[in-house]
Design a protein that fits this description.
The chain is of the alpha+beta class. Helix content is about 20%, strand content about 35%. It contains 14 helices and 38 strands. Strands 31-32-34-33-35-36-37-38 form an 8-stranded mixed beta sheet, sandwiched between helices. Strands 3, 4, 5, 6 and 7 form a 5-stranded antiparallel beta sheet that branches. α9 links the parallel β35 and β36.
């Protein structure tokens, strides 16, 4: 019997109360009956969310055993007692480990040796899951810190250069406001220094006397970089930099050579760097290239032949970005008169994402043929006729993202992360001197996992305008190309973010039930370079949504997928995508899971006082000042365009304390969907009352969240049973 046949109708809760709320922009008046839900502390709102949670639980109660099965599969496949590969910094090897039955990671270290043998000194100590590590020092146990708290998340860790102090940031609400604490690693005691309400990121000055951190404003925009001197009152903390432009994001990092504080201010279209000499902080900040030049760039200082330079990754006359080397004295001249030496020229087929440096090499992150890759260039001869060609680690798969994990400045090796859809994550050390690769770890997948049981391939779906959309497709080997298989289509499609084909333990639970899993690399993402992103933002944003619909249509004719058994999943801006395609083509989807969905985008962006709202103008346009942007957004924003059609089964999953996409957006959306739909499929709202943008904290809680989403999807697709190993028939 199918899940649909066995389903017992559950009474729908009473409709949400309507309170007319008017807003007028550019001569257009909109009446919003559910805006009252924005009153977060309202008893009526809290009661509404709890009532909706109860309804969701009742509607999905027949999925409980499937949820438990998927959770158990994730748990049984995961090496619960595990360790990361130790990474060296100065005199210590740092790593994290997990223990079976415990929600959170444990941060540890062991002492390193300096024998003079580089290969030996930079070979990480052997650590085996479940075996005590000789000389281990536990710096931070997340399980102890989280005890008795509804939520726990770390927002940054930093150790002083001499290894004596640890700074860490802790969030206990899910609202991404952290408390900074300092721990003496010799005594295990906390220093009296405690800084509340900071944002992600923390770093010590090289001498360990100061700690730098970021603060957000009332709209949750990071706008200040501050410095706290240990042993002084927090009220005396110094504002190193404050950004007053509400559309600009501020962050910082310490340069690779530990000599400068690099403060980055920017949006998606241009940026600016202010730098502080950490040996002479009293000299104040210097601006490298002012924002008025409208160049999007990253900067990293380095010294070549005794001369101070900056390595710039930039889009100056280079849409896909390029890398240039600029002597520091050049930056004091007008831009048109500066001499920039080319390190990596512009290439229409290669997107340069960024550049890091060690004491001997430049390490590049590039995207080519949709896939992220790492390349290295020796500093010797850099930006001259003697510069060597970039070297690239070679792997034996077609669809693999390889990224830089760590690159300690003085290290003779760099740490690389590698994965693919069928290949569990691997950690390699790449030896800079000779280009050799040392495999340090391959994540164990328990339960007899065999990559040969799965097939990963690239397909191309034609969009209505003729553009070919790359798809990353993974399925069980042995599935017949007979047009009967269910499918899940996932995408994001915003902010130039690329959804690389990586391995997922949880996804195996879908694949093993015969579901074809497809990641659609739609416009608005970064998989095909900068122009791919620009074709899916602002007044071209609708391409993102139509690409997804066109990709879904293609799958239905590919022979692999039953067009009546396709589900869609997306989160955050990908949740906006889910809402948009539900309105555009509800008949194409059997179910939709919208995770923390940005479905009321127009209302949010029209109010610059709301969290992160003004920062969105560079992505979507500014509907406050531009009537054309207002009109265009109103045509696609999901909440504005709910219509009287048969909507598919929909789950909106959100968190009460999410500061990036407020709970009110999916709450309003579900109320309007349920009021308007002409169909009979359930439309549910599931709110995590103690979570943030990423849901509940703790790995077991996250696994249960994933199991819930996947069970909802598999149930809708009628794909609840695990396939036999040797055939596509059901056990």
């Amino acid at each position: 019997m199918t899940a649909d046949a066995a389903r017992v109708p559950v009474p729908v809760p009473a409709p949400a109360r309507k309170v007319p709320f008017e807003r007028t922009h550019h001569g257009d008046t909109v009446v919003d009956p559910y805006e009252w839900m924005r009153e977060k502390e309202s008893p009526e709102l809290l009661e509404y969310l709890e009532r909706e949670n109860a309804y969701t639980e009742a509607v999905t109660q027949d999925q409980a055993s499937l949820r438990e099965a998927i959770f158990t599969e994730i748990k049984d496949r995961t090496q619960e007692t595990d360790l990361s590969v130790p990474a060296r910094k100065r005199g210590w090897w740092y790593y994290s480990r997990t223990e079976e039955g415990k929600q959170y990671g444990i941060q540890c270290r062991v002492a390193a040796e300096d024998t003079g043998d580089l290969a030996r000194d930079w070979t990480p100590p052997e650590v085996v899951p479940g075996r005590p590590v000789a000389g281990e020092q536990v710096m931070l146990d997340g399980n102890e810190l989280a005890e008795g708290k509804p939520f726990f998340s770390l927002g940054g860790l930093s150790v002083t250069e001499d290894g004596t102090l640890l700074a860490y940031c802790e969030d206990n609400a899910g609202d991404e406001r952290f408390t900074l604490r300092i721990k003496d690693l010799g005594t295990g005691e906390l220093l009296p220094d405690e800084v509340p309400n900071i944002f992600y990121g923390v770093a010590f000055s090289p001498d360990g006397t100061r700690v730098y951190y970021t603060v957000v404003d009332d709209s949750w925009r990071p706008y200040q970089v501050r410095s706290h001197t240990l042993g002084t009152p927090v009220t005396d903390d110094v504002v190193v930099y404050q950004e007053d432009d509400v559309a600009m994001w501020t962050g910082f990092e310490v340069s690779a050579d530990r000599s400068e504080l690099l403060i980055s201010i920017g949006c998606s279209e241009y940026s600016e760097y202010r730098v502080l000499d950490l040996a002479r902080p009293e000299d104040g900040l210097r601006t490298l290239i002012p924002r008025d030049e409208r160049i999007l760039y990253d900067a990293e200082p380095l010294t070549i032949a005794g001369v101070r330079h900056y390595l710039l990754t930039h889009d100056r006359d280079a849409r896909n970005s390029m890398v240039s080397l600029v002597a520091v004295d050049q930056l004091t001249r007008p831009l048109a008169e500066q001499e920039w030496a080319t390190v990596v020229p512009h290439d229409d087929a290669v997107r340069v994402n960024g550049a890091s440096v060690t004491s001997t090499h430049v390490v590049l992150s590039v995207r080519k043929d949709t896939i992220e890759r790492v390349q290295v260039i020796p500093l010797a001869g850099l930006a001259t006729s003697d510069q060597q060609l970039p070297a690239e680690p070679d792997f034996d798969e077609e669809l693999f993202p390889c990224s830089l994990a760590t690159a300690e400045f003085a290290s003779p090796v760099i740490r690389l992360s590698y994965t693919s859809s069928p290949t569990p994550p691997r950690v390699h050390d790449y030896v800079l001197a000779d280009g050799s690769l040392e495999l340090r770890k391959e994540t164990e997948v328990r339960g007899g996992y065999d990559p040969a049981d799965y097939v990963a391939e690239r397909q191309w779906a034609p969009a209505a305008d003729g553009t070919l959309i790359p798809l990353s497709v993974i399925r069980r080997a042995g599935l017949a190309q007979d047009g009967t298989n269910p499918a899940v289509v996932y995408a994001y499609g915003s902010y130039e973010a690329s959804m690389d084909p990586g391995f997922s333990v949880a996804r195996l639970s879908l694949l093993d039930r015969g579901i074809v899993y497809v990641t659609a690399h739609i416009r608005g993402g970064g998989e095909m370079g900068r122009s791919w992103y620009e074709q899916g933002k602002k007044l071209a944003k609708k391409n993102t949504f139509t690409d997804f619909v066109d990709a879904t249509s293609y799958l239905g004719t590919s022979g692999w997928v039953d067009p009546a058994r396709i589900a869609a999943i997306g989160g955050s801006a990908g949740g906006l995508l889910m809402g948009a395609v539900a309105n555009l083509a509800p008949e194409k989807f059997r179910s939709i899971v919208a995770q923390v969905p940005f479905v009321d985008a127009l209302t949010t962006i029209l109010d610059p006082e709301l969290p992160l709202s003004a920062l969105e103008w560079e992505e979507w346009g500014n509907p406050i000042t531009d009537p054309e942007v207002y009109r265009y957004m109103k045509e696609y924003t999901p909440y504005e365009n709910v219509r009287a059609v048969d909507y598919p089964r929909i789950a909106a999953v959100t968190s009460y304390n999410d500061t990036r996409v407020l709970y009110v957006e999916p709450a309003k959306w579900v109320a309007r969907l349920r009021e308007t739909t002409t169909g009979s499929e359930p439309i549910v709202l599931k709110t995590e009352m103690d979570g943030g943008h990423g849901g509940a904290s703790g790995r077991y809680s996250r696994w249960r969240d994933v199991a819930w989403d996947y069970a909802f999807t598999a149930d809708a697709l009628g794909a609840t049973m695990v396939l036999a190993r040797s055939t596509s028939s059901v056990e």
